[in-house]
Amino acid sequence: MKVSVYDTYVKKDCGALMHFDILVETNTSVNDVYKYGKEYLTLKKVQQTNLSTKKCRFCHIEEAPKKVIDSINKEGFYIIEMENCN
């Protein structure tokens, strides 16, 4: 499965810049990408939920490994935590 990768940056409540990638099927609407990003932020207890193209933008398409495919089939998305996600 090929997936679209959305490079995402959000300022956390403490002021640190949170960086993560949202991976979705290539035909997923950008509104759904934002919805998935908000779900992830809620799980992380981050109050900031305003995602936009300035904070979350398409980066590239890549072939997904099995664990990513499994997550996308179950949840609709997969998150790769990069910086300040914990």
Automatic annotation (TrEMBL):
Q: Which domain of life is it from?
A: Bacteria
Family matches, as Pfam families: DUF2024
What is the protein name given in its UniProt record?
A: DUF2024 domain-containing protein
Quote the SUPFAM superfamilies the UniProt record gives.
NE1680-like
Q: Which Gene3D superfamilies match?
A: NE1680-like
